[in-house]
Amino acid sequence: MSEIKACLFDLDGVLVDTARYHYIAWRELAEELGFDFTEHDNERLKGVSRAASLNILLEIGGITLGEEEKARLAEQKNNRYVEYIAKMDSSEILPGALDFLKECREHSIKVALGSASKNAMTILNNTGLTPYFDAIIDGTHTSAAKPDPEVFLLGAQAVNIAPEHCVVFEDAEAGILAATRAGMRSVGIGSPETLGAANLVVPSLQQISVDALRESFAAI
Ligand code: B16
Ligand code: MG
């Protein structure tokens, strides 16, 4: 068993629910382009970078565009999304997240963020979560998107803990794969159907504690 010395958290879907703001902003864009974008379609965008999300959206709408136009649309969507997250506050922290972050501190476990979002700082600041982190790695620091392990390897490096002592908390399949590729254990936040590759799956951080984690991972 490798001792747990750092916990690395995805942001959207693990600590806060920004997926609905992403959804509204992408749906508005799809409407302008003349097609429907459903909540079911939105599942495909979770954990995926902004540029890759736009490509999926355009594929759903059967639209082909040049790079310049795509950059303009991605910016347009982001401007709308930023308007929504500007109004966020601590009431939008997901159940159990704050208590578990505090518990990690009490056990001297390092805490790092590993998010694809380029808006992570705004969200962390608006919800008051920033002080709970020893390191913040987001889409402004990375060159490769999950399932590439880069974001989590940079997080581990920033808190100076070896991957075998890190545990990743993720709501996206690509994020679980990124954790495995980084040589880290993972906890899937959501349903076992999509996150079956994780070492442990729980519905939310409310069902997790440092002791429970140590017990579950005793043999891994
Ligand atoms: P932005 P995470 C991801 O955040 C979201 O899940 C994904 O839907 C979004 O496209 C991506 O961030 C990029 O976000 O447009 O704000 O840079 O789950 O990795 O915390
Ligand atoms: Mg996520």
TrEMBL record:
InterPro entries: B-phosphoglucomutase_hydrolase (IPR010976), Beta-PGM (IPR010972), HAD-like_sf (IPR036412), HAD-like_SPP (IPR051806), HAD-SF_hydro_IA (IPR006439), HAD_sf (IPR023214), PGP-like_dom2 (IPR023198)
Thylakoid keyword on record: no
Gene3D superfamilies according to UniProt: HAD superfamily/HAD-like (3.40.50.1000), Putative phosphatase, domain 2 (1.10.150.240)
A Pfam family reported for this protein in Swiss-Prot or TrEMBL: Hydrolase
Molecular function GO labels: beta-phosphoglucomutase activity
Keywords: Isomerase
Top-rank lineage group of the source organism: Bacteria
Enzyme nomenclature, EC number: 5.4.2.6
UniProt keyword annotation of Transmembrane present: no
Entry similarity comment: Belongs to the HAD-like hydrolase superfamily. CbbY/CbbZ/Gph/YieH family.
Protein name in the entry: Beta-phosphoglucomutase
